pectinesterase
Amino acid sequence: MKRSFSSFALLLITLQAIQIIPTAISTTKLVPADISKVKAWVAKNINDFNDRKSNDSKGIPRIVLDELLASAEDRLRLIRVAKDGFADFTTISDALETIPKDNKRRTIIQIGGGEYWEKITIKCNKPFITFYGDPMDIPRIVFNGTASRYGTIYSATVAVESDYFMAVNVAFVNSAPMPNVNRTGGQAVAMRISGDKAAFHSCKFIGFQDTLCDDRGGVDELIIQNTTIDSVAEGTGVITAQAREHVTEDSGFTFIHCNLTGLGNNTYLGRAWKQRPRVVFAYTYMGHLINDEGWSTWKFPEREGYASASFPSFSDFKLIY
C-alpha cells in the first residue's frame, strides 16, 4: 500500500471498514473467526452512540466518547455537492472552503454521483468532516499527481491531515498511468491520511503505486476489516510497508476478514521498510498472487527476522492456489 518498491503495486482496494486509531487493538474481545458473526460482535462490544453519552440505569458513567467528539456529533451541519448544480456547491473544494478553521461541528459533505476532478487537502485545523456518497452512485474523486511532480506525500488526490475524518461510499482515485519500471517518481497516492481517529466505510482506493498512504504508519494502529485488495503488479508487488522503528511502539497494520487477489505469483504481504515493521493478517483469504515466502526484507537483508509480521494462528487464514 505505502511506498512499495514495486513499480506497480496496488490497483484497487475496496474497503468495508478501515480505522486509524492511536492505540493498539484490544486482545480482550477478539473478533470472531466467522465473518457472519462480526455484526453481532460489534453490537455486543461497541456501545450505541447515544448510550456512550450517558450514565447507565444505576447512574454509573459508561465508557463514553471523548468530549470533543461527543460535542461535535451533537451539532451536525450538512453541505450538499452535486455536479448538476442542484446543490449548495458543484465542487468538493468549494464546500470545504466554507468550513471554518478550528471547526467544532460534525460537517457532512453529501456528494452526488459522478467524477470530481479535484486535488484536495483537508488541513489539520478542520476536524470532524465526513464525505458521504450515494451508495447507488458512488462519487469518484480523481487526480493524476505523481511523486515526480509533487513528491510522494503530496501526490495524493485527497490528503486528510485533520482528526475525526470519515468517508462513506466514496472512491478515491489517482489516475496517473502505470509507472515505467526503469524510472523513478511514479508513486501516485490516491489517499493520504495523517489525522487520528479516522474511519472509512464502503470506500474504494484506486491507483498503481502507493495507493493508500497512512502517513502516521509508525505511530498509529491501522485496522482494515472486510476488505478486498486487488493487485495488478506485473512483476514484484508488495501490499504493505509499515513504519515501526522500535519494538516498544504500539503501531502496526491489522487486516481482519480480508481477501487478497490479483495477478501473478510474486506479491509479498509486506516489506521491511523500517526496522521493526508489524503487520498481522487474521481470517484472511490469499490468492495465488502471494509469494510463498510471504515477507520481503526489501533492500535490507540484515533485517531478516526483525519484522514482527505474523498470523495469529494457522487456522486464522487460508492460502489459496
